[in-house]
């Protein structure tokens, strides 16, 4: 936005003095169960009709829809649900980012390969590091008191 556009917002002749801020560019990932090409096409056309959408990527194998644009994530989810498909925000994260990928709630058989559910039990507590790291530091060469333990 240029300087003249910025100044013209202050000098407008309209009676309404409310200025609308543009939404920030966002990437919205949604999990949608799609069975055929028709389902994929219906979801894609519904999301494309939302104002502010720049690109839509549909991956039927992963049951994933990625939307880029100046959109509200909840409006995108509502629009996908309006097609009659079961939809939710993408609940998975890459497996290599998680300390405990095989914890009871993180591991999901339905997750795509290399992904686990994003749950707090998969991460160590905030006030302490992972127990494996603490045990390894006891016997580290960098630890001055390591020989007293051995």
From TrEMBL:
Residue intervals of the HMA domain: 25-88
Compartments in which it is found: Membrane
Gene3D superfamilies linked: 3.30.70.100
The organism's place on the tree of life at top rank: Eukaryota
CC terms in the record's Gene Ontology section: membrane
Gene Ontology MF terms: metal ion binding
Coiled-coil intervals: none
PROSITE patterns xref list: HMA_2 (PS50846)
GO biological process, alphabetically ordered: response to stress
SUPFAM superfamilies in alphabetical order: HMA, heavy metal-associated domain
Name of the protein this chain belongs to: HMA domain-containing protein
Lineage: Eukaryota, Viridiplantae, Streptophyta, Embryophyta, Tracheophyta
């Amino acid at each position: 936005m240029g300087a003249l556009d910025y100044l013209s917002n202050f000098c407008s002749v309209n009676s309404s003095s409310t200025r609308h801020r543009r939404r920030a560019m966002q990437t919205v990932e949604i999990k949608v169960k799609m069975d055929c090409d028709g389902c994929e096409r219906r979801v894609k056309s519904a999301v494309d009709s939302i104002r502010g959408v720049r690109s839509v990527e549909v991956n039927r194998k992963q049951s994933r829809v990625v939307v880029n644009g100046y959109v509200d994530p909840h409006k995108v989810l509502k629009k996908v649900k309006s097609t009659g498909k079961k939809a939710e925000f993408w609940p998975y994260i890459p497996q290599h980012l998680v300390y405990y990928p095989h914890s009871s709630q993180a591991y999901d058989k339905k997750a795509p390969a290399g992904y686990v559910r994003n749950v707090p039990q998969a991460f160590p507590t905030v006030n302490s590091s992972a127990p494996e790291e603490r045990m390894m530091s006891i016997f580290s060469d960098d630890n001055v008191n390591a020989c007293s333990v051995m």
